[in-house]
Specification:
The protein is of the alpha+beta class and 319 residues long. Helix 1 runs parallel beside helix 2 and helix 2 packs across helix 3. The chain has 2 domains: 86 residues, no CATH class; 219 residues, 4-Layer Sandwich (Phosphatase 2c, domain 1), CATH 3.60.40.10. Strands 4-13-12-9-10 form a 5-stranded antiparallel β-sheet, covered by helices on one side. Strands 5-6-7-8-11 form a 5-stranded antiparallel β-sheet, with helices on one face. Strands 1-2-3 form a 3-stranded antiparallel β-sheet, covered by helices on one side. The protein is 30% helix and 25% strand. Strand 9 and strand 10 form a beta hairpin. It contains 5 helices and 13 strands.
């Protein structure tokens, strides 16, 4: 940061320049220049001076240092804003713009950024049609809130998509994605949950990599927390195993997959938060998944972390 320490205390004529107060009074102005040698701008420090004033060297040094600090702060703010915009656009480009229309499957998805700060997270979801009778759903959360997390989110989503389209079972999909992350060595970990959906048999097979437990709302309204076998976060151990569990999903059931932003609250035990979410899911009408998704999102109006959720309901098989 280079500064012009010349202090201008001469009278200024009236001007429309946005950085000059239109007055004939004497003003104290210093020039701030951003890094990189770009031409700086004059700014007024303090109120107008109604009579000439000679600034001693100590005051000149203090005011010049103050201008330098302000200039550096503005420079960092512009850079931070640029990085945030890039990360946000990257994240938006990597998330699915629409979900596929799969006969026999009713779905709804939502994404809500954290209610504080400007950082961008690595939450993602996906729904893939495999064939006429099977589909796959995935949801995950990459550690961190920056461009690196958004970029890694895209790589994880692509890897999961590629592995399940070749017919790999849920545990193998996560195992192969895990080894890819370790090979990439991004220094970030990822939680993920993968579900293979059998539309003909009305069942699901799920595997988890350190992800929050999914919920199932049964046709009678009763809601169950699925205790999927625990698995390590992706990106830690190349030999990690991800066992799967099968659950029935008869017509009228709703499967809820979500990231931890939906239940994370300072001072609240995660198990208690999941129980509260299960209670809300049980009390809410599930006939319209879009309305249900909105209700679930609204219970966290100012989340401390990004939220992604995916609601899935298998429909009766046509005769």
């Amino acid at each position: 940061m280079s500064l012009n320490d010349k202090l201008d205390i001469t009278p200024r004529a009236r001007s429309s320049h946005p950085f000059r107060v239109p007055t004939a009074d004497r003003l104290l102005r210093v020039r701030m220049r951003p890094s990189g040698g770009a031409r700086g701008r004059q700014v007024q420090l303090g109120p107008p001076l109604h009579r000439p004033h000679r600034f001693p060297p100590t005051e000149r040094a203090v005011l010049t240092s103050l201008a330098g600090l302000i200039g550096q702060a503005l420079d960092r703010a512009r850079l931070y804003d640029t990085q945030h915009n890039v990360a946000g656009r990257l994240q938006a480009a990597l998330l699915p713009h629409t979900l596929p229309d799969i006969p026999g499957l009713d779905v709804a998805a939502r994404y809500l950024p954290a209610g504080h700060g400007l950082d961008v997270g690595g939450d993602f979801y996906d729904l893939i049609r495999l064939n006429d009778t099977t589909a796959a759903a995935a949801i995950g959360d990459v550690q961190g809130h920056n461009i690196d997390a958004a970029a890694l989110m895209g790589q994880v989503r692509t890897a999961v998509h590629a592995h399940n389209t070749v017919g790999a079972p849920p545990g193998d999909v996560l195992s192969r994605t895990n080894r890819l992350l370790i090979d990439l060595d991004p220094g970030l970990f990822t939680s993920a949950l993968y579900a293979h959906l059998d539309l003909a048999r009305h069942a699901a097979c799920l595997a988890s990599a350190g992800h929050p437990r999914p919920l199932v709302r049964h046709a009678d309204g009763h809601t169950e927390v699925l205790h999927t076998p625990p698995g390590l976060l992706l990106g830690i151990d190349p030999e990690a195993d991800y066992p799967a569990m099968k659950v029935p999903l008869p017509p009228g059931c709703v499967l809820l997959l979500y990231t931890d932003g939906l239940i994370e609250e300072p001072g609240v035990d995660p198990d208690d938060a999941i129980a509260a979410l299960a209670g809300l899911l049980e009390r809410t009408d599930a006939s319209n998944l879009d309305a249900l998704a909105d209700t679930l999102i609204q219970q966290a109006p100012n989340p401390v972390d990004d939220i992604a959720l995916l609601l899935i309901s298998l429909q009766p098989t046509s005769e």
